[in-house]
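Aim 2, interim progress: modelling of the heme C-bound target.
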Amino acid sequence: MLKFFGFLCVFVVIFSCNSSEKRATIIDGTKTYEVYKGSEMTTLMKAMYAYNLQLKKDIKLGKTPTEFPREFLNIHTAELSDSKSRNETFEQFSGQFIDAEQLVFIEDSQLSVTERYNNAINLCLSCHKTECTGPIPKIKKLLIK
Ligand code: HEC
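Predicted structure of the complex, ligand included:
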């Protein structure tokens, strides 16, 4: 059990941007665990990650994605964790990312679905390079090689 929690902590440190500020402490009997507490944006990001992981699998199986998940538009309004602000760079990257992700679902395009999908993932990466570098290795795994 302890090993499991140890693993969880390592996971948090590797994959989030500023983990030290986003933790809550849970006291369970005699032990104290540091537990990760995320913002609305964190929840959305995790959902976008999971969605794109599935999308990658589907594309590799030759399935054509049909419907852009409208929840992604929440990137324009979701609350960020305290230490982050919705600055101009963020707005610019979120707009570019949404445009690219929408293109994945458009049928007749000059680019193959794999290229359009990778373009969208590269925009996840572009934004992350500017302010949230922690999850970059994880996001890179979404790219279709
Ligand atoms: C416009 C900038 C931007 C774009 C585009 C973006 N992210 Fe993020 N991402 C962030 C920010 C900022 C955070 C930190 C959120 C917070 O602290 O509230 C974050 C957090 C994350 C996290 C960490 C969540 C956690 O557990 O702490 C993951 C994973 C992630 N993003 C994956 C992705 C993926 C996958 C995409 C593309 C499908 C993507 N992001 C697109 C800015 C972006």
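The mean pLDDT is 84. Residues 53 and 77 are 23 Å apart (CA to CA).
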